[in-house]
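Hypothesis: this fold can be encoded by more than one sequence.
Test: take the structure tokens below, design a sequence, compare later.
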């Protein structure tokens, strides 16, 4: 898999802030062999009350979509060992040339305002415009730190490791906002439905009526983004009628076959009698009807 480029406030690789969930799923389907293990979480009882969360376990990536607009509003990298990212010539994460530590990332992304300590989660948040790093800290580390001091080194001399990376739109990770719909002009397009007539797309001013031809659709809407080739009709089994299935073919026995079977039985009885009497009996069977018996005896 190619490295994902980090663009603060905008995107991580192919996943852009504000993109519809359908576009994200389409990309994942095209790269199904590399993104096989996925999870999709939503509120079953009240789907609009909480975000839609799509987790790509093989990439260590979590995508959070707004429940009402179904657009991407937060990109969460929670496992740096499963994904390779690039920023300004530096390679981060899996197979990266830059260590995922506070000191290394501070050199790559430059100076910023001091971050904030989360004493409850033992974390340190370092905020950039459209970008937020979360570093794991040992328990009690904040007690010996100044509120504005950067945790460049831990008591054991190592630098705090990065735990998560957030890419978002808005002033900070706690105040998320969605960008305007510029790249998806037809998203949320009002559609008017007319019974027994068809539908009207208001922004494009195009309509689909019943019994319209494929040429009409291509002329009004252009070429389709995807085409499904249907090789076989799985509903064909329902086209068979019950009376057709209930008909059983009848088999008839011809008189020649019956006489041949009777002759064979007589020939078998004669052979049995000859073995008991040790003499060769005269076969009472017409030679013309012994074809079947001869084939069996041979």
């Amino acid at each position: 898999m190619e490295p994902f480029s980090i663009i603060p406030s905008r995107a991580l690789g192919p996943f852009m802030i504000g993109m519809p969930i359908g576009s994200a799923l389409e990309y994942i389907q095209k790269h199904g062999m590399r993104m096989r293990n996925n999870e999709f979480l939503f509120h079953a009882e009240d789907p609009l009350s909480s975000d839609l969360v799509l987790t790509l376990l093989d990439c260590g990536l979590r995508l959070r979509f707004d429940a009402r607009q179904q657009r991407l509003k937060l990109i969460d990298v929670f496992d740096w060992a499963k994904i390779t990212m690039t920023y300004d010539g530096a390679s981060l994460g899996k197979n990266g040339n830059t260590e995922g530590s506070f000191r290394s990332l501070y050199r790559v992304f430059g100076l910023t305002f001091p971050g904030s300590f989360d004493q409850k989660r033992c974390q340190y948040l370092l905020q950039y415009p459209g970008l937020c790093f979360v570093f794991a800290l040992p328990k009690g580390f904040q007690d010996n730190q100044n509120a504005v001091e950067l945790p460049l080194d831990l008591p054991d001399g190592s630098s705090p490791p990065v735990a998560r990376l957030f890419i978002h739109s808005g002033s900070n990770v706690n105040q998320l906002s969605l960008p305007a719909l510029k790249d998806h002009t037809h998203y949320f397009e009002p559609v008017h439905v007319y019974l027994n007539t068809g539908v009207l797309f208001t922004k494009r001013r195009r309509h689909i009526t019943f019994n319209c031809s494929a040429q009409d659709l291509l002329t009004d809407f252009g070429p389709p983004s995807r085409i499904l080739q249907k090789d076989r009709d799985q509903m064909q089994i329902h086209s068979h009628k019950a009376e057709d299935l209930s008909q059983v073919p009848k088999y008839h026995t011809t008189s020649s076959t019956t006489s041949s079977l009777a002759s064979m039985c007589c020939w078998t009885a004669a052979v049995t009698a000859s073995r008991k009497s040790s003499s060769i009996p005269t076969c009472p069977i017409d030679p013309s009807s012994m074809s079947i018996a001869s084939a069996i005896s041979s």
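The longest helix spans residues 255-277. Helices lie at 21-30, 102-109, 214-221, 242-246, 255-277, 291-297.
Hypothesis status: open.
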